[in-house]
Structures are given as C-alpha cells and as structure tokens.
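Reviewer comment 2.1 asked that we show a complete input and output for one of the modelled complexes. We chose the FE2/S2 (inorganic) cluster case, as it is the one discussed in the main text.
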Amino acid sequence: MRLTLNVWRQKGKDDAGGFVKYDVPDVSEHMSFLEMLDVLNQRLILKGEAPVAFDHDCREGICGMCGFMINGQAHGPLRGTTVCQLHMRHYKDGDELWLEPWRAAAFPVVRDLAVDRSAFDKIVAAGGYVSVSTGSAPDGNAIPVPKEIADRAMDAAACIGCGACVASCPNASASLFTGAKIAHLGFLPQGQPERERRALAMVAQMDLEQFGGCTLFGECQDACPKGISIDVIARMNRDYWLSALFSAPPSAGAAASG
Amino acid sequence: MQLDAKIPEGPIEKKWDSHRFHLKLVNPANKRKYTVLVVGTGLAGGSAAATLAELGYNVKSFCIQDSPRRAHSIAAQGGINAAKNYQNDGDSIYRLFYDTVKGGDYRAREANVYRLAQISVNIIDQCVAQGVPFAREYGGALANRSFGGAQVSRTFYARGQTGQQLLLGAYQALERQVQAGKVKMYPRTEMLDLVLIDGKARGIVTRNLVTGKMETHVGDAVVLATGGYGNTFFLSTNAKGSNATAIWRAHKRGALFANPCFTQIHPTCIPVSGDYQSKLTLMSESLRNDGRIWVPKKKGDTRSPDKIPDGERDYYLERRYPSFGNLVPRDVASRAAKAACDEGRGVGPSGLGVYLDFGDAIKRLGQRAIAERYGNLFDMYERITGDDPYKVPMRIYPAIHYTMGGLWVDYNLMSTIPGMYVLGEANFSDHGANRLGASALMQGLADGYFIIPYTIGDYLATTKLAKVEADHAAVKDAEKGVKARLDKLLAAKGSRTVDSFHRELGKLMWESCGMARNKKGLEENLSAIPALKEQFWKDVRVGGAGEEFNNELEKAGRVADYFELAELMCRDALHREESCGGHFREEHQTPDGEARRDDENFAYAAAWEWKGEGEKPELHKEPLQFNEVHLTQRSYK
Ligand SMILES: Cc1cc2nc3c(=O)[nH]c(=O)nc-3n(C[C@H](O)[C@H](O)[C@H](O)COP(=O)(O)OP(=O)(O)OC[C@H]3O[C@@H](n4cnc5c(N)ncnc54)[C@H](O)[C@@H]3O)c2cc1C
Ligand code: FES
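Response of the prediction step:
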C-alpha cells in the first residue's frame, strides 16, 4: 500500500518545528508501524536527509520507550497497543497520517517525535518506592498477601511509563502515571508504612514538574496501552487527602532519606 | 597471562561465607570518599548502583535509554528461579546448583553457581519487601511454576511481566538513592571507552546521546552491567538498543572475553515476515506445555494446516524424544526445527517455520482453559501476525535470545582489568554453555544486590588509588581515540546504510555461527567478516554530525564493534572441537544427531585476549574442575 505521512520535524527543544510530508509507496501490511518508519529512514539517509528521530527499544510493548501521536491518538488507533506493536494491516492504501510528538509542557521535545520524560523519574524519586535497603528483608512468605490484592497491585504496576496518558489528557496531567504507582504500592502490606507520605510527596512533585491537574476527563485510561484504570486516581486522591488532613507534610529531607 | 579465578578454599557450601568473612571492609565513614561508576541500569546494574549507594558510596549510573527503568531486563517474561522449596517438592540449594551446572552442559564454574543458588533465596525476600507483586496463591503465599529443564517448581513470576516488575523494584530503589543524593543518574549516555591509569580501571569516556557532547567520568572502580551481545546477529529477541560496545571496548583495553561462541537460541519465536524485519519476538516457552510441534511429512507441502490430516503430520519432537516430547531443552528443540526446515518441510511463506498447534489442547481442555493460560500470548501473536492461534496453528522458528559468553571474571566478578567488575549478562560466569530458563534474572540480581557490594569493598580497602585529574594524559588519550573514531564514521559518506551492513553481518553469523556450526562455514566467515568490515569503514553512510542527536552514528559505532566481536565468536566456535550446550559443531555429534561433548579436551573456559587490530587474539584457558557434579551426557530420549 501507499501512504502519505506528515511527520513533525523539530531539531531540538528550542527549534520551532513543523510538519513535513513524505510519500511511502511500498508499505507491506505485515510491517510494524516502526518498521515502516525504518524503511522511510533508510531512504532518507541514502538521499542525504536526516532520518526521523523516534524513541523505541524493546519493540514488544513493554519498555515504554516508544510513543507518539498518530492522527491525534496516542500510540495510534488500536486499543491496548503501543505504537511498536501496531501493524500496518490496520491501514489501507491511500491513507494520510499525521505523526506528532507527545505535547506537554513537562515533556520538552528532544528531536522530532522523541521527547524528554525525565519528569516521570523525578516523580518516582520523590517517593515511589518502599524504603527497604538490600539485606533487611524478612522471608518472602512472612507476610501473606491475598491473591486478589496481589492481582490488583499487579494491575496498577503494569504501567510502562510511556506518557500516553499525559499526551492524551487535555490538561496534560500525570495523574494516571502517579496514581498507578501509588495504587500499586498502596495495595500491598509492604507499602503501608509510607503510604501517606508517598502520596503527598509524589503529588507535590507532579505539580512541580508542570503537569496539569486532573479533571477526570478519562482520556488517559482510553489511551493507556496497558489498560490502567482511572480508579488509581481515586486511590491517589484518597491517600493524598487523608495524609494532607491528618498529618503535617514531610520536609524535603524526610522524604529523601525516607 | 595466568588466570586466577580466586575460588575460595573449603567445602562448596562454606566458600561464600568464609570468603565474605575474609574480605576487607571499608570503614563506613570512608565509603563516601569513593566514587563507583556503574554502567547499565538493568537488573544487574540497577541493583548494584542502588545497593552501593545505600552502603554510602558515591555512584554515577549510566544508561542509553531515556530512563533507567527501560533497560532490556524489562522485557523478560517468564520468571525468576529460587531454591526456596516453598512447594516442598524436593528443591534445595544443592539441587538448583546441580541443575544449573548440568543445564549449562558442564562448562560453568562450580563455586560461582553454588553461590548463585545460595543467594537466590535472598533475592525473592528482597524483591517482595520492595513491593514486587509476585503471583500469589489464595492463601496469600507466593506461587511458583515449573520451567524448562527442572523437575521442581521453583520459578517465581509476576504474570508474564516478571522482568518488568523486578526491574521496577530495582529502579525504584535506585531513584530513592537519586533523591538521597547518593546516585547521580546519566540517562541517554553511552560509554564509548574505558580509561586505565596505572593499569587500573579509573574512568569512562561517554557521549551524551542528545547533544553529542563527549565527557570523561573518573572514579575509583568501574562496574559494567551492559547486557548481552545477541544483537551481533541483527535479528534477535533483544531490544534494539542492546549492544556490546561497552564490553568490547573494555576487551580492547585488556579484559579477556570468555566463551564468546556460547549463544542461546530460543525455539519459540515468531518467524521473520520480510526483509524489513527489525527484531524477533519471543513467545514464552510455557506454550510448549500444551502446544504440539509439527511439520508436514511431505517436502514442500503447501496445503493449509487444516487440510493436512493427522497421519501426514510429523510431530518430530514427540517422535525423536518420546520421554520429553515437546518439552526438550531449548537447544535441542531449536536444532530439531532447523533440521525439519533444512529438509524442505518448513512451513509459511519463507519455509522457515514449524507449527505449534493447540488444536488438541483446545479439544481436550476447552478454549476457555487455554485462554486463561495463554490469553495474553495468543493476543500478542495475533497482533503481530494477524492470525488467530485459537483457529490456526501458530508458526514459530528459533531466534537468538541470550549470550552465555561475556567478559571473563573471577569469583569476585572482577575482570582481568583491576578495578573493573562485570555483572549480569555481560559476564560469562554462571551459565556455562547453556542457560536454563528463569536463571538470567536470578544471576543479574545476585550479582548486583548481593555480590558486588561485598567484593568491591575488598578492592577499595586494599588498593592504593592515586587521585586522578580530568586532564590526565590517559583521559585525553582515550577521548582523542573516541573522537577520531566517530569522525571517521561520519567521514566515510559512502553508499550503504548502517543497517544494511548489520543485516549482512547478521546473516553470515546466523548461517554459519548460529544453531549449527561447522569448520568450513566458520572458516569462510573468518574471511568474509573482515572483508565486510573493511567495506563498512569505506562505504558506510552515517549522515548528520557528531555534536547532535544522531541515532545513525550510535548504531554505526556499535556495528563496527560487532564485526570484531563476530570474528572472535567464529574463532572461538572453530577452536572448540566439541558440541556442548548452545554450541553445536556438526562434526561432533552422535550417529543419531545428538551433541557430543569432549570433557577430556574442552572442560575449560576459553578466555581470549585482544592483541591489536588485525592480530590474532590469544587464547587462555581456565580449567574447570568438577568436584561435586558428576559429568554425564545429557539425554532427553
Ligand atoms: C524477550 C526476553 C525474555 C526473557 N525472559 C527471561 C526470563 O523469563 N527469565 C530470565 O531469567 N531471563 C530472561 N531473559 C534474559 C534476561 O532478561 C537478561 O539476560 C537480563 O535481563 C539481562 O540483564 P542485565 O542487567 O545484565 O542487562 P540489561 O537489562 O540488558 O541492561 C543493560 C543496561 O546497560 C545499558 N548499556 C548498554 N550499553 C551501554 C553503553 N555502552 N553505555 C551505557 N549504558 C549501556 C543499557 O542502557 C541498560 O541499562 C529474557 C530475555 C529476553 C530477550
Ligand atoms: S519500544 Fe518498548 S514499548 Fe514500544
């Protein structure tokens, strides 16, 4: 099949950027979307033009490195699918596509379709863990965890940190990402001691990183390739308000040494 | 060079304890005076960086992805082994040790493997405490599954995402230390050379992958945890960014490279669909529990599978290995698939595929039960191929998956360069000639959480390390070398892309140094690869500049290294005149086509020393002694 691509080209974060049109005449339905871009890039390189930059690594839908907008949809049209797992059989001859990077103040463009998501790491650093140093753990079976609880924790822990939730949220909020980590650890007995402090610290960091507030549009859960439910946001809010109401906010130092 | 593995004295079960007692400790107040450079943030590097920082060392941590959480370990699906014996089914540290040495076809060091089995139990405890959501039974206890090559149920798992969850545990521990100011994180940063001062590893030269800026980081010790070299073959199940550059450049600085030809091929991957193919996708080994593998009896039979009656199908694994059937180990299953395709009985458009058929299992157990067991894998298969495996048998073919070889390390995980340690898949240590399923995650975390924190302390406590300035001659020298190399790649301005060279190299390797090897093919590769390398340096087209985001330049540097490593792999495969584990030499097989090991002549680790551009590398041997495990020929008949 033959496709027309309009690809966002931008040299760096301070460059204005704009769409450039490419004709891709020989797309096989068996290619993945990224393989289609590989083919385009091989051609651009031989013509002496700069290839389209995009992030990717595992190409199996698990590392969370890939991701951009296709015709306004994060990771493209297929539900529960990262762009590296999207195959060209979902398109037809003559289609015209618009590829854009995630758009969010907290995710500056690195180049073309690649963005800087280090704000996510900072949210995790603020408190997205159980503070247990190597060597201090009791036996794995010392604390039973009911299967339903472990399963629900796993549902939330499945987040791959790709940023599709932020990109598809009208407010560019990171609530689904942050809520998923808070819910994952909050379900488990191991996560209880720091539960309140964690919610306070992570939410505060999320605001600092210039993500927007959540107004429960729900676009994030539709765009999430791992099907994380917005219930995690409700859990985040509950943990946050409980701790904000009943305890003094931790000092930065307390969170750090946590 | 005399290789000293530094294996502690004493009975095997006491070695690690007594070694730890004898290791020198660094006084807590002094730890903050040391800086350790940890390259890689996978299970091995991530766990090492976090733990060293917890102990009080200053750590600088590097990775090529945009976040440490995305290291290739994230993709591991199946699980992690540990000798917990929670199932009360007869498992023990000794049994895990024994299985691993045997599974590795008797080419691993006993003392290391025993320690790995000992530590396996602590790993699970640590991960549970971090909040890793392992699968549980209704009563709340940890669940286990069985995995290839073992008769006990010792594999812990978190759905089909075990690697992801273990890595997130390590990543979160790492971020805690970032927040505490003990780790400085350098994502999107690639190590391009190692700096040696007074013969000791003291720094690394890096390139910032966003700006292209080069930088040198100095420290008191260097830890490489940069993963395996499966991507030498271009097509593999590894992530696209996985590469051998860090270990290869360290090799050229003096670290011996051990058993490079020991590579693992996974039997159940989705076959290649076209020449645009960028990587191969693994379908979990667990599918072989219920799927039956077959090809048509007739050559060149192009009927669709449902038109081929049962009597005209060859369930070749069940036929050849009646007692293990479809569950034979990875290497055996892979070779049998290749043999069927070589006979012209392969299926699918390319003829390089065999059926993995769930028809009988669905009839027996119902579609529901199969969906419960393998639903997500079936979905993934359908997403990629467009075929519905509930209706049409899956097509699968073997693919490169893991590399057992790597930089040689002693019992302390130190390479032949003092002060440089190698962890995880990047080292050669624990899997011999074949790795058992669910043992790589175990090894990565054992190395990072529980071994390096002890052994590095001994080195720092007993070694005099002069202060190194950033403008030291050795630093300048290394920087100059890196820059010259990048400039040379950019200057070629030839007519072929990096990928086209890499694909060609991969094909040479897959055909002659893949599932089956022979003298003729390997010798041909030993002249074809250097020729291709020469052409690469003349005719590659990279484009762009050095001081910018330039993915082609990154890839070009890695491919340049693969040529040299590929040559060493072939040389190693040629010298090893036996078949063992993943290394199958066609000249060394039994009359019915099984691998024939030669313990008399080859019970050693082959450690190669770089002798310079265009020179033959020198072979050093570390003899392997088996005091515990009884050497036998593996049989799955
Ligand atoms: C699809 C798949 C499934 C698997 N499933 C299982 C399983 O179920 N059980 C099991 O035990 N094993 C499994 N394995 C094997 C296992 O996942 C790996 O062996 C293991 O995760 C390797 O971990 P590592 O920490 O050594 O390296 P990696 O996780 O590969 O990490 C390498 C790190 O080094 C960095 N790096 C590399 N080069 C450089 C450089 N030059 N400069 C700076 N940084 C660099 C990378 O950025 C990364 O952070 C699987 C492998 C694959 C491919
Ligand atoms: S490349 Fe890893 S999720 Fe897409």
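The CA atoms of residues 362 and 370 of chain B lie 7 Å apart. We note this here for comparison with the apo prediction described in Section 3.2.
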